[in-house]
Amino acid sequence: MAAPTARQLVLDLLSTLPHGAMPVRALVASGQLFGIRENSVRVALARLLADGRIERDDRGAYRLGPRAAAVSSQVASWRTLDARLRSWTGGWIGAHTAGWRGASRGRLRAERRALDWLGFRELHPGLLVRPDNLADGVAGVRSRLASLGLAPETPVFGVHDLEPAADAAARRLWPVTRLVAGYRAMRLALERSEPRLQALPEAGAMVESFQLGGQAIRQLALDPLLPDELLPSAERARLLETMRRYDRLGRGCWKRFLEGFGVVRHSGAPADLRLPAAIGGRW
């Protein structure tokens, strides 16, 4: 398992504190667990503070800033994936991206990243779609895409009555077999790690729970949440339940360390938030 960068570590740890902050010395000590030098942590803090992704309180402790809030909320929603779904009636949600022509490379990355977060895939050049099976419907998806960085001028709309060939093509956009195999492989990795965490020294258990738990959260947070008609959800549900249990173990691994620095986490906060590089860039 790859170690986090200083930037990832800072953001991930602060993501576990929706109602609190973490002192520099706790962040530096956390970095040492992963072989990250103190200077690297301090440089990451300065850069994240400058671009608004973190903020510092009057005690010199750090919390997430407003620019990180939307992504943090999206990642933290892994716990309630099942509540974010509704029955699928065969309709789609579309996003029209032709207006992106001429945008900067950074802008294009941000736009595409927002759509990736919510499972959109390209059906035709300039038209990305996903099943209309999310509980908040088209309006809710439009709002969430905007908070994640999609430009407000990008049209997001309901798509109905696709002609049969296009509908069949849309249903094949996601690698269903690979997704199901990924759920199973991650669940088994978590199940193998559970007894190991209880036998490892504290530092080893902290590192393993952070890295492996973070991989599972990344997988769940980026899941396209396809309806059962496109992807049987049983394996995803098993992974979700296993990760909820593993998260409780992970929080236990970090509890004494964080309390030693006076950091008290919200009882519902996930312990392991390794944010995904797989979405094409940093949050």
Structure characterization notes:
- The chain is globular and about 60 Å long.
- By secondary structure, the protein is of the alpha+beta class.
- It is built from 10 helices and 6 strands.
- Strands 4-5-3-6 form a 4-stranded antiparallel β-sheet, sandwiched between helices. It has a two-stranded antiparallel sheet with strand order 1-2.
- It has helices at 6-15, 24-33, 38-50, 66-76, 105-117, 137-147, 164-171, 176-199, 202-221, 234-260, and strands at 54-56, 62-64, 92-96, 121-124, 127-131, 156-159.
- The protein folds into 3 domains: 6-69, Arc Repressor Mutant, subunit A (Orthogonal Bundle), CATH 1.10.10; 92-159, no CATH class; 175-277.
What's the short version?
The strands form two sheets. Strands 4-5-3-6 form a four-stranded antiparallel beta sheet, with helices on both faces. A two-stranded antiparallel ribbon has the order 1-2.
Strand order of the largest sheet: 4-5-3-6
Quote the average pLDDT: 89
Radius of gyration from the CA trace? 20 Å
E-strand count: 6
Percent range for helical residues? 40-55%
Order of helices and strands: HHHEEHEHEEHEHHHH
Distance between the amino and carboxyl termini? 20 Å
> Largest sheet, if any?
4 strands, antiparallel
- Give the total of domains: 3
What share of the residues does DSSP label as strand, in percent? 5-15%
> What is the tally of helical segments?
10
Contiguous uncertain segments of 5+ residues: 266-283
Shape: globular
Structural class based on helices, strands and sheet pairing:
alpha+beta
